[in-house]
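User: Write out your own:

AI:
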Amino acid sequence: MYRKNFPNFTSTKMGLGIDLTWGTEKGFITKDGQDEVGEGLRAFLQKNINQYDHFFFSFQPKNYSQLDPSDYIQVYKKLLQLIPKNMPVGLHHTMLNMAGDELYPKQQIVDFTNILIHELGLKWVNEDLGIWSLNGKSLPYPLPPILTSEGLKNSIENIEFYMNALVCPLLVEFPGFTDGGGLIFGEMNAFSFFEKVAKETNCAMTLDTGHLLGYWYEVNGTLNGFYNALSKLPLDHCFEIHLSGSKIKDNRFYDLHNGVLIEEQIGLLGWLLENCQNVRAVSYEDPVFHHNGSLIEASRPMLSKARNMVENFNWEQVI
């Protein structure tokens, strides 16, 4: 049974992931020369965090200067003071650039990340398999890998480097595809590409419901054949499932991160729970909430469905 590179926890309730931007009340702000947790984010966590079993936050660079852990550690510690003490915490990275083919300072990124892992007690690092930057400049939405033999070789080499260099487990996430944002280059099928990556590197995987649906709709415009193709992935490598707000309109899929899940994601969640025999965690990513910390009303019905599905799943079979 595959569990070699898994983080060491099982979460029997929904987990929470948040993309924390700088300069907003729902992320981080600077006040009187000190970096602080924004009041909106503080209110949300105080009101909601006890409904979740694990937590991850997405790294966003504070500025364009050289990476320095001291620019981040203190405000991250303030953030984690709002999280229950024993809750597993991970980092969703945005700088590993695992599908990139450019020379970039990977060791510097590793050194920076390993300091965060030690200082914050992080249990895992996750990142979408994608191209996050070009010529050193971050992209507004990461591009999927170049789906060629050369793109496959680059991805495998980068993943193996990070798996060996990081001091906690790395979860490699199926890349994002969204209408108008996830341009597809190369002749390989993305499911076949990801299958080869997982088997060659022996990595643990994150499967994002929006990313999986987004790719299939981008190529086919319908769900026909979706689950049959999905079953060919090495599903035993899947540690975590992600759920983030999406929309399907006119047979086009939009990975909006708007907090509102759709029926197709709930159906896919149920299928993944039953077919990913080693899955250990399900995470609701990027909730949208009011300044007082309350979730927007539109997100509540489907989130409740997903939460009930997770909490009623027989987790004893994977522990």
